């Protein structure tokens, strides 16, 4: 059982790193989630992993129990049938109890079950005249008692509560909930340091009569309980894994909506969404309760969170349809009748001149009966609806235009914006076809995928990347739905699921960033609310690169400037590649070699075109290129090194350049891209750092860097004596038996192609089958803030372009 040892928990919604006060949470499990012993065991696991003591667990009746009870009530004139069905019901319940508990644990529940079955039998003899709801209540009662007993024996103390002792409906006021009394009751009934298992669906009035809360009443029970308990979160654990941008059984490109603004969710419920029900959402208005829809069959999946959010969540658009509506027309409606219609039949639409309204067919009989009773003359028509729903969508001209475009070839009876502005409604006098619904969905949601970006590393290159981000987001169409949602350095992180204002990102990071650890970061990343999440790694950290495996497992995309993962061991690297490919994550590494130069892209293109890479050679270090191009003896080598550091060319620790490690890593990355399998140690490497400087801190090394001067002065003299120059060269070539790979200092003739570079330039010579006598050359600045940050932006744009054309079909699990 997950007990909060300290009195803190982490906010799941906006800033996951922020500690918030512990509050009561409510979890609701529907009938299909509790259908059999296996399902109940799964629910116990979910409770262990997601609930804490003092939380409320609201349960529906197991599986089809409510249907069985309804069926018994129908048997009023058929004793034989009643007896058979009652026996079946008893056996089913007893079997469930016996499967989940040993005989001593089960005894009391079985005894209680016998009593309940006798009660139903007696009620049958009375023709169920007065206590129908008492019979129906057994479904939830049995479910709550069983779960409480299983939890008590296996997890922690649990207490079953009969909601009829809590929720009191006022029979003198349209059976509205008596909030004050119900609040007192819930506080009196709950037990501290227990899990409180609460029956959904049922309530009673002040006279003690049982009532049910109607279709999907248990969801409603959960949100009422949350409201009375001042709970912050309600999770509806159900058989679907969230709310989609359209019914995924019909639209297989529907997107899961990870977050839905309260008012939009209510609108979906009002229009007949099969998961969100208008009543369930009613209690959410009063305080800031977040409602989560999650799957008990796939509890690790992020579901849909409903609450108060910022602009990113508010931009979500969905399409809902309803073929089971009737339109009632009359010119005899007066204010009193309209008020009754509004309170009793939840109209989806009412015409402006008040001569018609549209209601769900489930209310049709009641509504028609009511109008007849009132002597109103009216006509009715079956109609259907396709609605586009989103925050203040009625005011979004471009969506309205796209919706209309999708309906171009269809007869529309009415096209209106809802009075609350959150939906555009098109009514038809025929059923909406699957094709039409798909067409509307693809037209109105076509670029609504949200991409979150997290930047790790805000140093030399990271800061420049961030500086360039606002202009890129404003300028590049492919980045239209890209949102900066996280920033991290080694010490602190800022995550804001609602988006971090890009123009003030660094200030916000300084002000609001919080200490974090990788575990916390991974937890958030595994439940992020975006269609796609991109992590831009601009750290030099091997430890951070060890998280890639987890990122790829979560389907997160990575853009690396960090070279560690690309040059890790073959086993690690291959595992990363295979995970990345299996989950569809993208891994872009262009800046790991040559900064912004497109050498990685060039190698990939050559291979794609059927060519073979036979040799890669060149100057791969911007720092060493700059140093050796400028080193003519007029300044000490260590002075030049300091200068290269200040210009942002070097690694955070310049010994990674001087030791050859940086070049060795780059050669390995390119060789792997070219299709060779080798380890870093397979590349011979000349280390230019003397042993006296190896074990120092970076600061100590820089202070003592003049120890390098004599060695390099001698080397320069040697080169001059040979009429040559010093260059640190990388060479890889395919041989008959495998390959040869080395990086090291060479004296080159002054006329050599590698000798005549602009300081800091890299040069890559690619010798291939097709570029044999005249190798392909890529040359240009190979290090520095602008070119590297620019290269990372190029990767981001390329990635977003790929993601824009990615189609993801919904896998329907659990939806029936
Ligand atoms: N300079 C260049 O031209 C090029 C550089 N690169 C690569 O870019 C990367 C960054 O270089 P540069 O900006 O110069 O480095 P800096 O040292 O200037 O900045 C590094 C940043 O990474 C952060 N960081 C370090 N470790 C971690 C960690 N474990 N988790 C999260 N954040 C961490 C640091 O945070 P803190 O401040 O808290 O330590 C700092 O913000 C390197 O991998 C480098 O090889 C690639 C191509 C070209
Ligand atoms: N320190 C590196 C930076 C780019 O990778 C270099 O100098 O090339």
TrEMBL record:
GO molecular function: aspartate kinase activity; homoserine dehydrogenase activity
Catalytic activity: L-homoserine + NAD(+) = L-aspartate 4-semialdehyde + NADH + H(+); L-homoserine + NADP(+) = L-aspartate 4-semialdehyde + NADPH + H(+); L-aspartate + ATP = 4-phospho-L-aspartate + ADP
Residue span, Aspartate/glutamate/uridylate kinase domain: 24-294
Homoserine dehydrogenase catalytic domain ranges (all copies): 598-797
Aspartate/homoserine dehydrogenase NAD-binding domain sequence ranges: 457-589
Coiled-coil zones: 79-106
Entry superkingdom: Bacteria
Assigned EC number: 2.7.2.4, 1.1.1.3
Family annotation (InterPro entries): AceGlu_kinase-like_sf, AK-HD, Asp/Glu/Uridylate_kinase, Asp/hSer_DH_NAD-bd, Asp_kinase, AsparK_Bifunc_asparK/hSer_DH, Aspartate_kinase_CS, Bifunc_Aspkin/hSer_DH
Cofactor dependency: a metal cation
Keyword annotations from UniProtKB, A to Z: Amino-acid biosynthesis, ATP-binding, Coiled coil, Kinase, Metal-binding, Methionine biosynthesis, Multifunctional enzyme, NAD, NADP, Nucleotide-binding, Oxidoreductase, Sodium, Threonine biosynthesis, Transferase
Annotated metabolic or biological route of this protein: Amino-acid biosynthesis; L-threonine biosynthesis; L-threonine from L-aspartate: step 3/5; Amino-acid biosynthesis; L-lysine biosynthesis via DAP pathway; (S)-tetrahydrodipicolinate from L-aspartate: step 1/4; Amino-acid biosynthesis; L-methionine biosynthesis via de novo pathway; L-homoserine from L-aspartate: step 3/3; Amino-acid biosynthesis; L-methionine biosynthesis via de novo pathway; L-homoserine from L-aspartate: step 1/3
Function in brief: Bifunctional aspartate kinase and homoserine dehydrogenase that catalyzes the first and the third steps toward the synthesis of lysine, methionine and threonine from aspartate.
Protein family (similarity comment): In the C-terminal section; belongs to the homoserine dehydrogenase family.
Quaternary organization: Homotetramer.
Protein name: Bifunctional aspartokinase/homoserine dehydrogenase
Organism: Thalassotalea fonticola
Gene that this sequence comes from: metL
């Amino acid at each position: 059982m997950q007990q909060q040892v300290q009195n803190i928990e982490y906010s799941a919604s906006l800033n996951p790193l922020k500690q918030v006060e512990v509050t009561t949470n409510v979890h609701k499990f529907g009938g299909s989630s509790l259908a059999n012993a296996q399902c109940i065991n799964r629910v116990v696991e979910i409770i262990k992993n997601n609930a804490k003591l003092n939380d409320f667990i609201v349960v529906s009746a197991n599986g089809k129990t409510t249907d069985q009870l309804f069926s018994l009530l129908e048997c009023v004139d058929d004793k034989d049938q009643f007896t058979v069905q009652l026996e079946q019901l008893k056996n089913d319940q007893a079997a469930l109890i016996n499967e989940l508990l040993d005989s001593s644990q089960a005894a009391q529940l079985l005894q209680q079950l016998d009593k309940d079955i006798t009660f139903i039998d007696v009620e049958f003899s009375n023709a169920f005249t007065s206590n129908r709801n008492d019979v129906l209540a057994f479904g939830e009662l049995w479910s709550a008692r069983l779960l409480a007993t299983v939890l008590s024996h296996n997890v922690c103390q649990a207490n079953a509560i009969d909601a009829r002792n809590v929720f009191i409906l006022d029979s003198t006021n349209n059976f509205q909930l008596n909030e004050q009394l119900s609040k007192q009751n819930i506080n009196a009934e709950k037990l501290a340091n227990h899990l409180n298992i609460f029956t959904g669906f049922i309530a009673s009035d002040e006279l003690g009569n049982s009532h049910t809360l109607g279709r999907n009443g248990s969801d409603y029970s959960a949100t009422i309980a949350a409201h009375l308990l001042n709970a912050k979160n309600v999770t509806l654990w159900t058989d679907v894994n969230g709310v989609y941008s359209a019914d995924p059984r019909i639209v297989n490109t529907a997107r899961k909506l990870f977050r839905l603004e309260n008012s939009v969710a209510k609108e979906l419920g009002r229009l007949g969404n099969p998961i969100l029900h208008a009543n369930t959402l009613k209690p959410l208005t009063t305080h800031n309760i977040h409602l989560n829809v999650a799957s008990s069959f796939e509890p690790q999946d992020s579901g849909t969170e409903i609450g108060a959010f910022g602009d990113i969540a508010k931009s979500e658009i969905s399409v809902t349809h309803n073929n089971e509506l009737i339109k009632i027309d009359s010119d005899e409606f007066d204010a009193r009748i309209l008020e009754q219609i509004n309170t009793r039949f939840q109209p989806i639409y009412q015409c402006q001149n008040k001569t018609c309204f549209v209601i769900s067919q489930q209310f049709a009989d009641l509504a028609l009966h009511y109008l007849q009773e009132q002597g109103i003359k009216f006509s009715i028509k079956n109609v259907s609806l396709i609605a586009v729903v989103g925050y203040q969508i009625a005011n979004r001209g471009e969506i309205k235009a796209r919706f209309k475009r999708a309906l171009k070839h269809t007869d529309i009876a009415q096209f209106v914006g809802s009075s609350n502005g959150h939906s555009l409604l098109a009514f038809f006098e025929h059923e909406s076809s699957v094709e039409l619904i798909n067409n509307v969905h693809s037209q109105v949601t076509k670029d609504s995928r949200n991409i979150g970006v997290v930047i790790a590393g805000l140093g030399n290159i990271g800061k420049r990347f961030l500086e360039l981000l606002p202009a890129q987001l404003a300028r590049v169409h492919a980045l239209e739905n890209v949102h900066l949602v996280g920033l991290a350095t080694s010490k602190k992180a800022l995550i804001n699921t609602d988006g971090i204002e890009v123009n003030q990102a660094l200030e916000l990071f300084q002000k609001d960033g919080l200490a974090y650890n990788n575990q916390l970061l991974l937890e958030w990343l595994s439940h992020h609310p975006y269609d796609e999440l991109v992590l831009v790694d601009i750290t030099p950290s091997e430890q951070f690169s060890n998280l890639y495996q987890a990122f790829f497992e979560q389907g997160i995309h990575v853009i690396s400037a960090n070279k560690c993962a690309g040059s890790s061991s073959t086993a690690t690297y291959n595992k990363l590649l295979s995970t990345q490919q299996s989950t569809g994550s993208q891994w872009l590494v262009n800046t790991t070699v040559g900064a912004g130069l497109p050498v990685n892209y060039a190698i990939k293109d050559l291979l794609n075109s059927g060519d073979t890479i036979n040799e890669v050679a060149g100057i791969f270090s911007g720092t060493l290129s700059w140093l050796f191009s400028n080193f003519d003896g007029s300044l000490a080598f260590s002075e030049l090194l300091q200068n290269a550091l200040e210009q942002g060319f070097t690694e955070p620790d310049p010994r990674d350049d001087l030791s050859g490690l940086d070049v060795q890593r780059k050669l390995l990355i390119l060789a792997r891209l070219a299709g060779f399998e080798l380890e870093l140690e397979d590349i011979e490497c000349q280390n230019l750092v003397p042993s006296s400087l190896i074990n120092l801190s970076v600061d100590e090394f820089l202070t003592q860097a003049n120890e390098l001067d004599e060695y390099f002065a001698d080397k320069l003299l040697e080169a001059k004596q040979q009429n040559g120059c010093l260059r640190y060269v990388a060479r890889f070539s395919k041989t008959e038996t495998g390959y040869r790979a080395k990086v090291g200092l060479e004296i080159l003739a002054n006329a050599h192609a590698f000798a005549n570079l602009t300081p800091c330039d890299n040069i890559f010579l690619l010798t291939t089958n097709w570029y044999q006598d005249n190798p392909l050359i890529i040359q240009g600045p190979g290090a520095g803030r602008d070119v590297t940050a620019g290269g990372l932006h190029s990767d981001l744009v390329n990635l977003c372009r790929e993601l824009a054309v990615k189609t993801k079909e919904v896998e329907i699990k659990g939806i029936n």
